[in-house]
Amino acid sequence: MISKTFIALILSGWMLSAVSAQEPALQQDTMAFKLSLQNVIDLAITQSSAIKYAQNTNVNSYWRFRNYQTRFRPQLLLKGKLPEFENTNNPITQQDGSINFRRIRRLSASANLSLNQTIPQTNTSIYAATSVYGINNILSADQEFSSSPIYIGINQPIFQYNWAKWYRKTAPLEYERGQRDYLETIEEIAHRSTALFFSYLRIQTNYELARSNLENSQDNLEIAEVRRGLGTISENDYSRIRLAVLNAQKSVRNADMDLRNADFELKSYINLDQSTKIELMIPLEMTLFYIDPEKALSEAKENKDDVINFQQRLLNAERELEQAKRDNSLSATLSGSYGLSNSSEVLGGIYEQPEQQQFVQLSVRVPILDWGRSASQVKLAESQRDLVLYDVERDMKDFDRRVVVQVERFNLLKEQLKTAEEADKVAENGYKIAQKKFQNGEISITELKISLSERESAKRDYIRSIEDYWESFFYIRILTLYDFEVERKIFYDNPMLEDEDTLL
Q: H/E element holding 66?
């Protein structure tokens, strides 16, 4: 990714080139930086608000994955109450069943240190722990301690939905999709910058054409006034020439307002100071190369987040089906622990000759009669799974077709671009000839207007053809995340993660 230092160098280069190579222009338009399409894209993908949002989203994806990685690592946990004071009247059940309220005033403390581990393949939880508990009866001055120096335990669900197994499948896919989405978002920013660039360029071209037309119309009016004095021009033609000047003035004002709006929108998107005066350069240096549709489709399937999305949708459908089956069938949970325990009136005594302690429990859940609820939930999940299979298959075909169609369109743009360029040259030359003939009185104002209309139409078509090329070029980059111009995969670093550990 382009650094801020590099952007500063770019701006400095524009300033120096503007001052040294275009001093006459600067006298009319001070500090007018000439921006190429790549300049605009570089600014957008380094300092726009859109790139900041994309980087923060990518950081969020990074930390979600880091959290996933820690979910199945051992956890050492210390819990305790240090201390707990109680001063109240408690109901005490007597031997004959009656209840007497007795005053209780005691101070207690407890601590438990445990090491926990989850085994995701079997959804098993195991732990090893040690605990101590002490109580001091303030009213009687008695104290007692209890401890489990060491005990180990297990909690094993049986025939139950294993969330950990599915989480280990979905979390890496989610992270990989986030990385690809980050690259795609940057390419979308480049694509959006291209659209704004050419929107500005079209309006800038219209403005330049309007100014040129105004100058030519004013020249024509001066000649028409001379010819009018000589009586060699009709009043009708003279009036139409005057009207052409007025229309040209109106066109200049309209084009100027459109240019101001386009200028504001482009600078806002690329986060360029509104006071900076810019002039866009037509991107004529294009490498007209051929893209193999099969190569493009292969790269798209390997690089795009759409493919990950297809996998996620299928995986989620299978997960929900299994959960429906598990939640509506026989299930059990086996819990057990084994260790040592002891009690004593002194703290040190709890670790002398401790006794064994065991605990085993098997809890069972068996649905007997639910009026078809379980079966309907399973059937519903199966139906949803089948719908997802159908939708994914259809979307995959649409995805393949979209890539191939866009590549075929790009390959056809070469001839269209060459034709538009030649038409622009012919129309420009034809207008110059018509202008001279009109000034010499060889053709009418109507014929001049036809030539002018052809010139403007050809110029706009040429700009549109160039825009179509670059729009298609960057859209293919979005679809494939591959740069066919240099034959390599597209990759961008996230500067917000430069200080973090690299995830493999």
A: helix 49-71
The C-alpha angle 189, 484, 272, rounded to 5 degrees, equals 25
The residue type found at 148 is S
- Asked if residue 153 lies in contact with residue 126, where contact means CB atoms within 8 angstroms, the answer is yes
The neighbouring-strand residues paired with 332 are: 158, 364
Task: Supply 356's token pair.
Answer: 């064994």
The residue assigned the tokens 């012919």 is 426
Report the pLDDT value the prediction gives residue 405, as an integer from 0 to 100.
Answer: 94
Of 428, 186, 216, 396, the C-alpha closest to 311 is: 396
- pLDDT at site 481: 94
Distance CA 116, CA 72 (A): 10
Structure tokens at 64: 């979600």
- Tell me if 44 sits within 8 A of 269, measured CB to CB: yes
**CA dist., res. 413 & res. 229, Å (int):** 52
pLDDT score, position 30: 52
Buried-state track 38-57, b at ≥16 Cβ within 10 A, e below 16: ebbbbbbbbebebbeebbee
* Per-residue three-class SS string for 156-189: EEECCCCHHHHHHHHHHHHHHHHHHHHHHHHHHH
pLDDT at 3: 42
d(CA 449, CA 431): 9
Residue 488 to residue 481: CA distance in whole angstroms: 9
Residue 429 identity (one-letter amino acid): N
Helix (H) or strand (E) holding 474: helix 445-480
Q: What is the pLDDT of residue 330?
A: 87
Q: How far apart are CA 210 and CA 192, in angstroms?
A: 27
How far apart are the C-alpha atoms of 181 and 309, rounded to whole Å? 11
Token couple for 238: 């003279």
Helix, strand, or coil (residue 328): coil
CA 212 – CA 366 distance, rounded (Å): 87
The CA distance from 475 to 403, in Å, is 10
Quote the DSSP letter at residue 349.
Answer: G
Q: From 60, 183, 168, 58, select the one nearest 121 (Cα to Cα).
A: 168
Q: Report the C-alpha gap between 138 and 104 in whole angstroms.
A: 8
- Residue carrying the six token digits 């929107």: 199
- The letter for the amino acid at 246 is L
The parts of the chain modelled with pLDDT lower than 70 are 1-31, 500-504
* Helices marked H in 149-282: 163-230, 235-270
Q: State both tokens at 41.
A: 């894209």
pTM score, whole prediction? 0.80
The owner of tokens 């160039």 is 466
